[in-house]
Structure prediction request, 1275 residues.
Amino acid sequence: MEKVIMGNHAVSYGVQLARAQVIAAYPITPQTQIVEILSEFCADGRLDAKFIKVESEHSVMAAVVGASMAGARAFTATSSHGLGLMHEVLHWAAGGRLPIVMANVNRAMGPGWNVWTEQTDSLAQRDTGWMQFYCETNQEALDTVIQGFKIAEAVLLPVMIILDAFVLSHTMEPVDIPDQAVVDGFLPPYEPEFKLDPGDPHAFYGLVTPEHYMELRYKMHQAMRDAVQATQRIGAQFGDVFGRGYDVVEKYRIEDADIVLVTSGSITSTARVVVDTWRANGHKVGLLKMRLFRPFPFEAVREALVGTPKVAVIDRNISQGHGGIFAAEVKSALYGASQQPVLFPFIIGLGGRDVTPESIHSILNHTQSHDMPAEDSIWMEVKK
Amino acid sequence: MSYDVPDQELMTPGHVACPGCGAPMAVRYALKALGEDTVLIVVASCWSIIAGPFPYSAVKVPLLHSLFATGGSVASGVKAGLEARGLTDTTVMTLAGDGGTFDIGIQALSAAVERNEDFIYVCYDNEAYMNTGIQRSSATPWGAWTTTTPVTHPKSQPKKDMVAIMAAHRIPYTATATVAYPEDLMRKVKKAKEIRGSKFLHVLSPCPSGWKSEPGQAVYLSRLAVETCVFPLYEVEHGEEYRITVWPRQKEPAEKYLRLQGRFAHLEPQDIRRIQDNVDREWDKLVAKARASGQVVPE
Amino acid sequence: MSYEIVFKTEADMPLLPMSLGSTLYNKTGSWRYVRPIYRNKTSPCNHACPAGEDIVTYLAMVTKGQYEEARQTILQENPFPGVCGRVCAHPCESECNRAQLGGAIAIHSMERFLADLPAPRTLPRLEVRDVPDARVAVIGSGPAGLSCAYQLARSGYKVTVFEALPAVGGMLRVGIPSYRLPRDVLDAEIEAIVSLGIEIRTGMRFGEDLGFEDLDDYHAVFLAVGQHRGLRLNVPGEDASGVAPGVEFLQRVNLGQETTVGPTVAVIGGGNTAMDAARSALRLGASDVAILYRRSRHEMPAIPEEVEETDQEGIRLEFLTAPVEVLAENGRVSGLRCVRMRLGAPDESGRRRPEVIPGSDYTVDVDMVIPALGQAAELSFLGDRAQVERGRIAINEAGAISRSPSGADRWPQGVFAGGDAATGFGTVAHAIGSGKRAALAIDRYLRGQALEGFPPLTAHLRVAPRDVDPTVVRFEDINLAYFTEEPRTVQPQRPAAERVKGFGEVNLGYTEGDALKEAERCFSCGVCNQCDTCWLFCPDICIRRLDSVPPSLEPGAQAYQVDYDYCKGCGVCAEECPREAIVMEEELKWRK
Prediction:
């Protein structure tokens, strides 16, 4: 069934279809609609889940950690400062190997207050041990929620599904809402191996001494590496069932390209249009969409980019004192390759400033006209 | 003499509480009262250590170690998760220290009990951050030494009245208890188990290391706290029905309790008088509330 | 058993930090530098009992309903629980720590309750031991003689008891009136003792019907002839008709001989004999009985309950008065001339010495005077063959006679003495303890063992000693948090007006409910009674309950075990123990 819905509600429908059992949430713009409608679903019985209306995002994450540890499929959504407030609990969820799914609507961090889109909030949590998916469309958001639970429960790692504030969250798009029965076939009920069970009592997350801590983190890292394949396998399986397959990255017209744009989130759609325009004009340009950011898909990135003369990475985020975070990560993936591309790191659209086709044209022009980047980070459209 | 205490032990020896610590005693009694169908949540506190390191546990019930501020929130999630799995009768009990309850965890606790989540919150109160080495908390009593309230500037604020705060939430059940009165403690835990909704138990738990007292006198101090009325044992139902559960046989002077603890060694006679005045005032207020609730007050 | 979990590689480990075993792997006992030890100490009642009864143990047994075990515990030490439960002066109660919190435990009532239980009066024989084939002669069938005979006979010795009077029992029979000690109670206990195979020969007064020369067939002799001669008033006129010494008066009454009492009787003295004589006179028809005592009530040596009962029965107690002359008309008593006394400085007994108030003479009309100032032993049979000190046979700690310097060569080995004739303590319980001491000594003597190491005569001895610390527990040692003030349970009595009509028993004894209630009051000073307090409060859950063992029948048996693998030595158990039965000792002492 196709519906024209906003990105936030696409997430909500995904959660409903995934039959989440416990949802905890705290309001924050621009996420609130996700849980508002879920609250309705829970109240009217469309979703058989307990909705816990806690008093902060710290408690949100603690509540879903508790629910997940008790063996329930748990979901929440947040944004920006809400995500920041969760920070220590994100570690607890990941180190606790809990298959929680959370939607994060990318929003800039203050001060000053800014409710518009930017990726720094989620990227600042990249070391917590959560998987991160950046969505391009409302359809992808819905589909990734369903896949997210399946992947999380397969590798026992929490999954963060990220969508841009307003550009996706509040923008209506036609979305195919799959049949519940089909989703149920794809995503069976959660059967936890590790849980709080009075019939088989264990203590979880107690003191771990240096004798054991490193091995536990090693095993978590192994799980993260395995999660790349799991994402590909489950994405392909999703395609078989629903007709929309997913990979960790998406390559768009990169064969023989002289310049490949690297994008994430909704900027991808804008860039895709510009790539088509440039191709129509005879320029060999292509696009690499980063869908999975954690674990970082090293092999897929290398496979796509090695041999390309120039790569332009578009970052709607900033690691102060370093630069664009995607750029740094892509660069690290290419280090030591025999035919390393020249990498152009662009910072653009912070705090929700629009990234237009013209912005992408400028980026491509800059890349085409320079042999090497003029600066460590190329800040676009800054009023100087 | 015999005690109405179940034989079943849901705690094991080998836990790493300091000698004479009240915290393992409180949990042992609580678990005896609750039985096996219980999930225990321990937020950052001495009990994070007491329960034993990975891969061991000192309790025979499921235990979730959680973050400092999450006593109320994680329990809400656990209860919801258990119910989702059909385990509707399992008791969820959060265990937190005074720091985790009076200070860092009060927001999540207040919210959880305001929602009337179905769980028992047990605060074992040793009146300072003991696990980090005796720093003052808002549960530290007036006049006490801690490493952050040195004897030249001992704590100059009264202990926060946590029971009053909980009672103000109008939750079904709030009570105080202490380890010298295991039967009273267990009766309260059992009562709490039978009530659906939020239950708060404030347990005074002697800490020989932090109170600078003799380990062997832990239970004695706990009893003196009650007999001096420094820490009366009572319960509050729905925020308004007060009932004193253990009347001191003979109200002892607070000094008897204070003088056995090095943390009060610096107090001058006028300080002790001030404490005594405060104890008397608070006790009179409590007795008045009990009387107003219809309890017959002994002579 | 090792509880340790070892991961060789990360592959052995679970995905997440979770428990796979208990903290039992962690032997926290290594933290300890002091350790708790269960060590039973001595209760003040046990310490005070001249008969060496294990009172604290049998009270604990009563709380568990183990009545027969409790009775057997007494019988190990004393074959006369029915007697002692009625007439003992119970120094145990004077020392009882409970006295300071609601009144001493009514131990005598407990003992009587156990003795009166409707169960066969079988006395416990000792386990068959390889005793020498020896015969022992016991002179006197009072409590000392029968106690000695009982302990020897149950060990396997052949015992013959010689008694001067026609009836067995000594002072128990001829000194104590039946309203205090019914004859069927006494008879039953004596019968049980005799049935162990003891030969009884009555009407054999030593020194007249029998002499040392007749005892050659015996390998040891125990002299327990008692004190049956009343002391004189030493005032003019006391040989008048109508003056009857208390012991002789009571002997006649108790042997059922014809006795007449005048309507007005004055008894002189403040001891139990005075009370017994006065109350017997009342029961024989005297209309006006008075007891004259030269000191005040506080100094009276009689058992306080006896004084109380005497008072209740309408006998006048006149204090601070003493006769100076017996007045007679026609050789018969007609009155007493007395003087008033006052109390001066304390004398050597610690009591304030009475002094005559000059010019305070007064006269009272009486028909009968019964002096009851104390008794003496008739020891003329000894000749110069033993040392007599202050009218009593001198003995050493083993009860063996101290030989007279002049008679040393002629005095045979193996002669022991005890009871009132030797010790002068003057109570039934002391006599029983004294007889037991002699039996233990005679056993050693007959085995050729040295008679050394006996405690002083003021201390008691046990046939069944328990492994306890001799430290006597004080009231300050009791953890009062565990006890509330509860009144002593007093056994009912028949009303005074009714009981003075005859010699029926005054006290009616405990019901089972009374006994249980009273036993529950016991602090069990220094003796573990399995109250579970240590188990309950151990912060380390390392005190285990052992299978319940009756405490006295298994000497050294204990109810709990500390698991020293885990005990951190905090001391809460020792501090909380309500009864001081746990001590903390330095760990170094226990390290090999």
Observations:
- Chain A has a mean pLDDT of 97.
- The interface with chain B takes residues 21-22, 24, 49-50, 52-56, 58-60, 62-74, 88-89, 92, 195-198, 201-209, 212 of chain A (CB under 8 Å).
